Amino acid sequence: MSRNCLGLVILAGLGLMEFQAAELRAEPVVPGTGRKITSVGDNFEKADWSYEFNGQKSSHDIDGQRRKPYGRAKNGRFKEGTGRGQPDVLERVATPEGGLPGSEGSLLMTSLDTGIPGRRTKEVQQDDLHASCSARVGGLIPVSSSPSAVVRVYVPPFEEWEQRDGLSFGFRLSLRGSAPKQANKELEKFWPGIFVQYHPRGTQRSQGPSANLVLRASNRGDTAGPAITPGWWTFGMSCTADGMVHYYAGEGVDDLTEEDFIASYYAHGYRARQFSTFFFNVANQADGRNWTTEWIIDDPTLYVVGPLPKELTAQRPTTRRPAVMNDE
């Protein structure tokens, strides 16, 4: 299957120039390289896949309310974000045409009531779905193991989108790290990601509806990425021992390659030290009328290149409900 080459030299250069060039940096790792951690992620192939919503969603990042018990997938592999709650609809659906060979099931996610339950702010709000990672591998993964996450994303036809100009979907990492001059201080959480931005009336470069990727981000803030079109895409992000985050995207469902590289950043000005999890966002105007765009994902997967520390067990039983850990 053909795919567009998305290596953007300008974006990559900006990311790599954020700190002194004399510093030693690791080569980017193509997401999907190394060993697959089978206890994390899902292929959604089991016909009885279901999600337990467990009451009103959390909105701690907005109003300080966590609203336990948290929602979770029946198999324990995905869970509600405690900062912002899970999407209103999480449903296994038939894999759209052109998906991974042999795939019969994928995950649809969409929301109407984003943000604080029952409150129509008419501002852009989002809901989150987190992979259960830390609890299933036994702790945080050091970036020296070069962790990476990959997902296939179905981009729907533009006429099926929420007709709003702005960010609609996000694929993100939850990391812990420090600013270069604060290496000895307590690690802080940060959340780099690849977003999909929609333009219903087009842009200066397009006369009709269009969409592009947005990278979060350099220490300058979000950075515009390449245009994308409806159909299946593969997104991936990796971390390396130097603390950088590397962003990749390719059209289709083939494994990512070096040609799919977009950029590398010390995301938000931090050097990553620990990988916690990956997660997904869906967003809308929170007006009580318009749903988010219906996003479909398949085969979200975690990989590591280097060995995991002895205290981490990457093959924990999947039938046991994992202990609650804050992956955010």
Q: Give the overall form.
A: globular
How much β-strand is present in the residues?
Answer: 35-45%
CATH class: Mainly Beta
The rounded Rg comes to: 19 Å
Q: How would you sum up the major sheet? A: 9 strands, antiparallel
**Count of distinct strands:** 19
Tally of helical runs: 3
Which sequence of SSEs, written as H and E, runs from N to C?
HEEHEEEEEHEEEEEEEEEEEE
The overall number of domains is 1
The CA-CA distance between the termini, in Å, is 35 Å
Percentage of helical residues?
under 10%
Low-confidence stretches: 1-23, 314-326
CATH architecture: Sandwich
Task: Give your account of this protein's structure.
This protein is mainly beta and 328 residues long. The protein has one domain: Jelly Rolls. The protein has helices at residues 9-16, 60-63, 134-137, and strands at residues 35-36, 51-52, 72-73, 78-80, 89-94, 105-110, 125-131, 141-142, 148-155, 166-178, 188-190, 193-199, 210-218, 221-228, 231-239, 245-251, 261-265, 271-284, 295-304. Strands 4, 7, 8, 10, 11, 12, 13, 14 and 18 form a 9-stranded antiparallel sheet that branches. Strand 13 (210-218) and strand 14 form a beta hairpin. It starts with 8 loop residues before the first helix and ends in a 24-residue tail after the last strand. Mean pLDDT is 88; it is low at 1-23 and 314-326.
